[in-house]
Amino acid sequence: MMNAVNDANILSIKNVSKNFPGVCALSDVSLDIRKGEVHVLVGENGAGKSTLIKIICGFHPGDSGEVLLEGVHYAPETPRAAMDAGIRVVYQEFNLLSYLSVAENIFFDHLPRKGPLVDKKKLHDDTVKVLRRVGLDVDPWQPVELLGVAQMQLVEIAKAISSKCRVLILDEPTATLSPSEISRLFDIIRTEKQEGLTVIYISHHLNEIYDIGDRVTVLRNGEIVGTKSVKEIDIPQIVSMMVGRQMESEYPFMDEFKQTDIPILEVKRLRIAASPHEISFALKQGEILGIAGLVGSKRTETVRAIFGADARLGGEILLNGKMINILTPKDAVEHGICLLTEDRKSQGLILDMQLDCNISLASIDKVSKLGLIDYGEERRQAERFTASLAIKTPSVSQLVRNLSGGNQQKAVIAKWMFSDANVLIFDEPTRGIDVGAKYEIYLLMWDLLSRGKGILIVSSDLNELMGICHRIIVFSEGQVSGEVLRPEFEQERILRYAYRVS
Ligand SMILES: Nc1ncnc2c1ncn2[C@@H]1O[C@H](COP(=O)(O)OP(=O)(O)OP(=O)(O)O)[C@@H](O)[C@H]1O
Ligand SMILES: [Mg+2]
Q: Which of 237, 304, 401, 425 is the most buried (most CB within 10 A)?
């Protein structure tokens, strides 16, 4: 078969608009998706990407306009109707039922039956087949809750392609994956594309556009800025289409701003669960210290143990030279140490509370007088952060649940920036955040440094670490395997430490 991409449109979106109370999420959007292409959708947080996807998937209707599926009017009233039409989606947040098995999750809505009963043998065999397609080797009867995030992601994809699937939509699928898992996902996409599948792909990792994309569409403020073949456009051009201005650099590093030699946080011979090694390092006042390492190198486990979220099996933690005893996260917060976790949904936010309450969650004292919350002050402070982090919301009274994925992440950051912590530990802080907003977050980090704080940042994005850190320590299998100072930053050198090759 020749390349399956041709000029026939599988989906035509015509003049679609969608409003939420106080928000115009999509305004007169028109877009064609060609049969057999990988169409990448990019745009800042809150630009309307997920909203557009949700209309195509029958999650909510548009206010006006029309969608054609292979030339025929298509207006799914429910997600089920979209699925029946062969439109499948893997959402930004997982939708698996954790207590069910892998097999039951994949075939949840079309379990094979023998009379009134589930045909267990067929369910097992079909599951094995589709798991093989996505390259996942797990027991079909294993409960999903025992899987890691990357495996869950693959189960989601298996679920999507397990039955008639004409258009596969992936909303930020790589946010939780490691580089090798990402390349596996891309292989799956390429293979399925050969079979004639059309893919709509949303991502904030702009370089991925060139790995798998055929065409790219940029959305800004609910409007289409343009659609281009990936061959005709480079990343700086895409960025300026996204943010509506030229961006000089991705990372603001303030050279004139030197860290001190005063250690603010010292970790000595720390021992964590399931690792025989001891970890020691120090964070200085006014410093951004990065922790690099492969997935599984125990970076997250280490910062969680420092914060008291996981057990510490041995070792000491010193704050400003004094030993402190942290047994729970509450102890850490009282000592002015905070942790922004990588999993914002379960650990960072209360989704059914307003944005302003979430921002002051860790700083109630600062918005209280004589033990009573001063709601006016709470609101003013929230507005200040909403403006400085450019959180897209009609007001600070919005429920956090209604914010776009990236804007929820910004809300977690605002929460910790507001708390008067002296040591801020960020675990993957900019995951799912667009380029413009990342820049704002880095600037706020510098502002914190200028006030004598120290920042420890775990990130899987090496360019980010090299862009913003004074110093990077590298983890490998639960040990500090190397340290690199800013003048010597070099990707290869850091990776050598991570893989422990000399
Ligand atoms: N259910 C809802 N109620 C109110 N507002 C909503 C709702 N869903 C989305 N919005 C708003 O619509 C706008 C577009 O959101 P959308 O989720 O489509 O953005 P996005 O481009 O996917 O962003 P991100 O990159 O952060 O995921 C945002 O301002 C968001 O707050
Ligand atoms: Mg989104």
A: 425
